[in-house]
Amino acid sequence: MKKKLYSLCMFLSILALILAGCGSGKAEEGADGTGSKVSGIVPMYTPGAGGPNYIISAGIGQIFKNSNVMPGVVLTTEAMSGVVEGTNLLIDRYNQGKPAFAAFTGEALAQAVQGELEQIPGEHPELKAVGWINSTVNHVVVAKDSPIKSMADLKGKRIGALPPGATATNLFNVVLEEGYGVKSSDYKHIPIGYAEIIEGIQNGSIDAGVLPGSLPNPNVTELAQLYPIRILEVEEDILKKMVERHPYFSYVNVESGMYPGQDEDTLMAAFESVIYTHEKTDEELVYNVVKTIMENGEELRKVHPSANISKETILNGIKTPFHSGAEKYFQEVGIEVNQ
């Protein structure tokens, strides 16, 4: 199974590289002879290659290229070590007056704008939203015979999760503390990756694990095929209150049968990923990027099934101001932005 999963990841990474249409040459921004104010290579910073944000961003870049709406512009997907690196590079592009985009979480965008993103000092109101691209669901898993029956039972337990600061870990802590009164200091956080979480559940070195991912999550599927597990549910009233306080978070109902051994519908917390840019990025460019996203939903879902982008979802998880180019498109198609 691990070999199959590895092969799948390799396939997705190769697909993303192909879709990105990346070139090794460089170009300068400037007039391209088509009336546009911008041309050349425009980076789109994302999490690691092979992840949904990378694949979706690469798909957007390829569709944008194929549309020929701005033939002098090439959108290239660049994988970063994390949101701090990607957002810092976006801010650098702002200071240079050069266009760029980033695809991370709505939480990260809100924190950067408000001056709350760790390792990036100061407020950054120059960062502007473009639109939603997908949701990531937090799967909290335990062994099927575990005495842990609810989220409240996680107090005092060993929990494998991504390092502090990761959106998945932040979301997990928000649910535990605000919903169940369990603070991060009330459990032992073991910062490990997905492979180690899968192994830890099987060998008992951790009591629970947090596995974020788009539906269906291949890591959860792999674990459920290797070892009997349960996925912990979060009560709906807790999830609704969470979304009221943290609008860049959300929740989903995962239907029974999505994973081996899951015989009931299960409510789970989720977080939203969005594309954002800075206010100096050309309005025409942002307008056409949003237009590309909105008018090619079916093609983007073929690139990655989590890219369920529509009029109903494009504003999800965004409570920061939009770029004027995005607002222009939304106004034209009757999407009301309330912020």
UniProtKB/TrEMBL annotation:
Coiled coil spans: none
Residues of the signal peptide: 1-27
UniProt keywords, alphabetically: Signal
Domain of life according to the entry: Bacteria
Gene3D superfamilies: Periplasmic binding protein-like II
Keyword match RNA-binding: no
Name under which the protein is recorded: TAXI family TRAP transporter solute-binding subunit
Taxon lineage: Bacteria, Bacillati, Bacillota, Bacilli, Bacillales
